[in-house]
Structures are given as C-alpha cells and as structure tokens.
C-alpha cells in the first residue's frame, strides 16, 4: 500500500499490478475497485464499452444543433458523444479549452509543464481512463507521499521531522494513527464490506449498505465522525491532529474536516485517493485530444469529422444569458451579443456561475434546484510551481545518507510540496505548495513572488542549508482558482445536511417529472456529480447529460445497453425526508 498512513488496503497486492515503467495505465486485476459511486452504482465504463453504443436519435433530427456550455472535460465528453450520435454540438467557452484540466508551460522551457488543476488520476476512475486510452495518452505513476514512485517523503509536524523511503520507516505513532482510521471506517462505515461489494460490482449490496448509512451520516462532519469513533477516542487528540495533518492517500485532509463525512467515504470506498497517475505532457492534453479527435464510429458525419472541424477551429465565446424563446427552444446569448436557439442545452460550468455570471432565466429550473445551486459549497485551492535546473533533490546528503529534499507534508504554510522529475539532468518542477480552503486563502492576497518567498522560507526551516532558490530558473507559476471569475472556486464539497441538494442536482438529467417549460436544459460537470473534485465525475455527469439529450429529442438507449437515466429509479440516490 502506498498511502501516507496506510489506509487499509482493500487488496494489498493491488499495487503489484502496476507496471510502473509503462506509459499506459495499468492492467486490471480480476475484480478491481472502480469509482462505482454508492449513490448511483452505475458502471459507466461498461456503458461506454458496449458495442451498441450509447443510443440513437430519430433520423430526421440528425445534424440538430445542441449547445454545450463549457469546454472543460465534461463539456467535451458531452460534445464528443453527441457528435458521435450524429448531432451537432455547439461548444461555448469563456476561457481556454480544458477548464480545470489546465496545464501551464514554463516560458523559459516550454516543454516543462505544471498542472494547475487536476493532476493525478486514480486508476479506479474507469470512465476517465476510457477516454485516456481511446486517445492514446501516456500516463505515469504520480509521486504522492510514500508512493512507490516517490523515492523519499518527509513528514514534518510541530517542528519534528521524519524521513521515510517506505511507510515502515516512520515511527510507530504513524502506524497507530493509520490503524485508528482503519478501525473508524470499518466500525463506523463498513469499509471492508463496501469495498468488497464495489469489487464485485454488486449494485444491490452497495445500495443496501449505503442506504442504511446515509440517514445516519448525512448530518455528520468528517471531524465529528473521527472524534466520535471509538478508535480515535481511545487514541486521543494527538492522533486526531496528526491524522488531519498527514491523512491518507494524498496527504492532509484536515481542511476537509468541516465537510460531510459522506464526501470522504465516497473517496475512500472507491480508492479515489489511491494509485494515482498523471498524464505525460500535462492533463490538458486530454480535453485537447477530445477536441481534435475524429472518431471512427460516427453517425451522420463524414469520416474525419472532429469537434474542432465542426467549429472551424474554435469554440464560441462566453455565454451571458440563457432563456426560453417564444417557440419553446432555449436561447443562448454570448457575452458579446451573438444569439442562437437550441432544442437542448447542456451547462457544464460550475453551477454558481448560472446565477453569478450567466443571466439564466429563473423559470428554467425548479425553485428547489436553484436552492441546491445557491447552497453549494465550493472549496478554495492554490498551487505554486517553480522550475529548477535539475532534480537536485536526489543528491545524497553525505552526513545523513538521505536525499537532500523529499516530497514533504508539513503543518507549515506550504502543507504539501511535490517533486516532479522529468529525467536526470533535465529541468524539473517543484510544486512548492498545494493547499485547500483556509490554507489556500492565506495565499490569495499575495503575488507569485511573495508566495514563493514564504514557501522557500518554510522549506528552509525543514531543510536547513539546502539552497533550493539557487536551482530556480525563470518565473514561478501560481493559481488561486477562487480568484478566477470563470470558476469562482476549485471544486465543490458538500457540507453536512447537503445530501438533498446533491441528489436534486445529480438526478436533474432525468426530466420525466418536470413540466415542459423546465425540460431540455441539463446540468453536468464534476460539481453535479457525487464525487466533485475528481475528473471522473466530470465524465460521468457528461454521459448523464448525453442520455438526457437523447431522450429529450425522442431517441433512446441502444438495445442491451441501458443508460444512466434508464436505471436511475432502480439504482439512484434515495430521498431523505
Ligand atoms: P470545468 O473544467 O470547470 O469546465 C467548465 C468550463 O466552463 C470551463 O472551461 C470554464 O471556463 C467554462 N465557463 C465558465 N463560464 C462560462 C461561460 N459563461 N460561458 C462559457 N463557458 C464558461 N480531479 C482529479 O481527478 N484529480 C486531481 O488530482 C484533481 N485535482 C484538482 C486540483 C485542483 C486545484 C482543481 C481546481 C481541480 C482538481 N480536480 C482533480 C478536479 C478536476 O480538475 C475537475 O473534476 C474537472 O477538470 C472538471 O471538469 P468540468 O468540465 O466539470 O468543469
């Protein structure tokens, strides 16, 4: 197991299936954990792989235009699949293709890149990897704390530094913390049973377990769950504190402590925080490839058609208004005035933007859905990268025999520092600090140089005498997603009691019970999914919207391949009062 505090591995042998030197994501073991979400355990990867495809629309509607707002991953998956069905997606984008899968190049060495949003993708995200594999993108194991791909990790808490090349190098205290967490999720949330059911894709059992837990857990915070567990109560405050700072998988999760425990359970059940890989050349390659790719199995369109060719190279501009026109179609107005009407519209921007940046006619959604949108909680997140001349961190300190700098988890300002190697003697990248919520807000008012100065100061306390600054080349790259008007936050995370809101947002694509005046506009994007903050949710909600559009236009699913909307009543999230 590769996680910082060794969360109970559902199958400790699973890492041995990783071909660390391979550039494609690993081969399956017989029954892998998938991101089969307990709220709706629908196998999107099987749906995508079915030879019959996702469905069809009536012949007379082939070529019909459908608006897709946002050229992030969700919008492009939606548009790509609509195009394959013979519809004509019209993609609108306010900024760049890729959305929160944004990769920046260092100007001094343009081949050296930094992933400003999504950067590490769990192999359990099967729908995400469907597209990664389809588009032939290369991936590589991500250097998370104590992962196989990470040569050394330093955990520095309250001024005490621990160096580890493997989890067993850490003092027994960290094993106790890991054991307390393992016991808490097993005793309080049936972790082992749930993973077993997910592994077997036993949707009925998953639902049974989850539906029992939901009413008990919906009003509980992550912290409340830990504090109430027998194991952490017995262990004491220091263990809770260290758990918050070191956490599991990718590192400290205490900035998530106020969030609903349901959000955390969805992550750990589905191994979303484990076995991460990154896309070589940057995560933005995925949306860019979707934009350029000409699928071989197209309906209606001539061979060679791609989203790029349908749009003559560029998406349309930012949307400023969505309304219903007198003929009953949906009217989309760009910020600079161009207007067009469509029988269906899919919105994939963060849903707050539907009231803050887009004038969306109120009557298009039920009032309860607006409540769900407005009450959504988004986390802040900041990242700061520098390029260095080479991966000098692998140099060995002659006194200690340790690497001079390691992947670092700390309770200082930086919280987490990642070392991203591009090969010996090649320019490399240090993600000096990746933070969420309060930790991210500390950086918001500071410019890139001020951020870097403070981050280097923190690292100097942990690594006295190591001249990191002396290796830096060119300008730093920094981002605070909450400061960007086209996002207004990094990703959603539900607070206690918000399950009801999430259920409304997620199920909205099944519109049978809505009045005619509220049909035809579909929400997608990771914030609509039950796993916000993971690209898998962007893909799967895009597929929900595709199902919604097919049905709205009078089409249906392919024979033998029921779509998400066909199975929503059977497998979908339950209603709490
Ligand atoms: P977006 O990417 O937000 O796309 C929406 C698009 O709508 C944007 O391009 C936006 O510009 C556009 N838009 C906004 N307003 C308008 C308008 N008025 N008109 C037209 N277009 C508009 N996921 C992982 O799986 N692994 C990770 O490691 C990971 N880390 C992350 C770290 C950070 C800091 C962030 C921010 C995200 C991370 N994620 C991660 C989440 C992942 O990036 C998202 O799930 C995914 O990129 C969301 O895609 P989307 O299409 O749903 O939304």
TrEMBL record:
<protein>
    <submittedName>
        <fullName>Tryptophan 2-monooxygenase</fullName>
    </submittedName>
</protein>
<dbReference type="InterPro" id="IPR050281">
    <property type="entry name" value="Flavin_monoamine_oxidase"/>
</dbReference>
<keyword id="KW-0560">Oxidoreductase</keyword>
<dbReference type="Pfam" id="PF01593">
    <property type="entry name" value="Amino_oxidase"/>
</dbReference>
<feature type="region of interest" description="Disordered">
    <location>
        <begin position="1"/>
        <end position="33"/>
    </location>
</feature>
<feature type="compositionally biased region" description="Polar residues">
    <location>
        <begin position="1"/>
        <end position="17"/>
    </location>
</feature>
<feature type="region of interest" description="Disordered">
    <location>
        <begin position="557"/>
        <end position="577"/>
    </location>
</feature>
<feature type="domain" description="Amine oxidase">
    <location>
        <begin position="73"/>
        <end position="549"/>
    </location>
</feature>
<keyword id="KW-0503">Monooxygenase</keyword>
<dbReference type="InterPro" id="IPR002937">
    <property type="entry name" value="Amino_oxidase"/>
</dbReference>
<dbReference type="InterPro" id="IPR036188">
    <property type="entry name" value="FAD/NAD-bd_sf"/>
</dbReference>
<feature type="compositionally biased region" description="Basic and acidic residues">
    <location>
        <begin position="18"/>
        <end position="28"/>
    </location>
</feature>
<dbReference type="GO" id="GO:0004497">
    <property type="term" value="F:monooxygenase activity"/>
</dbReference>
């Amino acid at each position: 197991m590769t996680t910082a505090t060794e969360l109970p591995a559902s199958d400790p042998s699973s890492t041995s299936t990783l071909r660390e030197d391979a550039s494609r994501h690993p081969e399956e073991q017989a029954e892998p954990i998938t991101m089969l979400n307990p709220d709706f355990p629908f196998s999107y990867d099987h749906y995508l792989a079915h030879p019959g495809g996702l469905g069809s629309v009536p012949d007379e509607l082939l070529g019909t235009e459908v608006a897709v707002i946002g050229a992030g991953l969700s919008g492009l998956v939606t548009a790509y699949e609509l195009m394959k069905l013979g519809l004509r997606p019209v993609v609108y984008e306010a900024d760049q293709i890729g959305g929160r899968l944004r990769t920046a190049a260092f100007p001094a060495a343009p081949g050296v890149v930094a992933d400003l949003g999504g950067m590490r993708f769990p192999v359990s995200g099967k729908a995400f990897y469907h597209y990664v594999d389809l588009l032939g993108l290369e991936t590589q194991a991500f250097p998370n704390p104590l992962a196989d791909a990470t040569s050394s990790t330093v955990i520095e808490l309250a001024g005490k530094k621990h160096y580890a090349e493997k989890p067993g190098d850490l003092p027994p205290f960290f094993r106790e913390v890991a054991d307390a967490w393992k016991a808490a999720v097993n005793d309080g949330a049936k972790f082992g049973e749930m993973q077993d059911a997910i592994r077997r894709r036993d949707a009925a059992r998953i639902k049974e377990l989850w539906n029992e837990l939901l009413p008990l857990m919906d009003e509980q915070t992550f912290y409340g769950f830990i504090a109430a567990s027998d194991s952490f109560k017995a262990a004491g405050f220091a263990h809770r504190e260290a758990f918050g700072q070191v956490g599991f998988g990718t590192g400290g999760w205490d900035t998530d402590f106020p969030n609903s425990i349901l959000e955390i359970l969805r992550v750990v059940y589905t191994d979303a925080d484990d076995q991460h890989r990154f896309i070589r050349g940057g995560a933005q390659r995925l949306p860019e490839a979707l934009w350029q790719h000409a699928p071989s199995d197209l309906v209606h369109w001539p061979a060679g058609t791609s989203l790029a060719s349908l749009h003559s190279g560029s998406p349309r501009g930012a949307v400023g208004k969505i309304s219903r026109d007198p003929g009953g179609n949906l009217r989309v107005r760009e910020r600079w005035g161009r207007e067009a009407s469509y029988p269906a519209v899919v919105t994939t921007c963060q849903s707050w933007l539907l009231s803050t940046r887009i004038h969306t006619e109120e009557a298009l959604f039920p009032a309860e859905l607006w409540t769900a949108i407005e009450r959504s909680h988004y986390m802040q997140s900041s990242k700061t990268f520098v390029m260095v001349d080479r991966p000098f961190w692998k140099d060995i300190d002659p006194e200690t025999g340790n690497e001079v700098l390691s992947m670092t988890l700390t309770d200082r300002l930086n919280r987490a520092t990642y070392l991203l190697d591009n090969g010996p003697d090649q320019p490399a990248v240090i993600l000096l600090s990746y933070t969420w919520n309060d930790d991210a807000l500390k950086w918001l008012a500071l410019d890139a140089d001020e951020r870097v100065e403070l981050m280097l100061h923190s690292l100097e306390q942990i690594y006295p005498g190591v001249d990191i600054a002396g290796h830096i080349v060119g300008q730093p790259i920094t981002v605070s997603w909450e400061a960007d008007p086209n996002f207004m936050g990094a990703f959603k995370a539900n607070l206690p009691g918000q399950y009801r809101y999430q259920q409304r947002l997620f199920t909205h694509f099944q519109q049978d019970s809505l009045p005619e005046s509220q049909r035809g506009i579909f929400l997608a994007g990771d914030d609509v999914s039950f796993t916000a903050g993971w690209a898998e949710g962007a893909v799967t909600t895009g597929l929900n919207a595709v199902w919604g559009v097919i049905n709205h236009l009078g089409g249906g699913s392919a024979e033998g391949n029921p779509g998400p909307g066909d199975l929503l009543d059977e497998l979908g999230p339950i209603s709490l009062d």
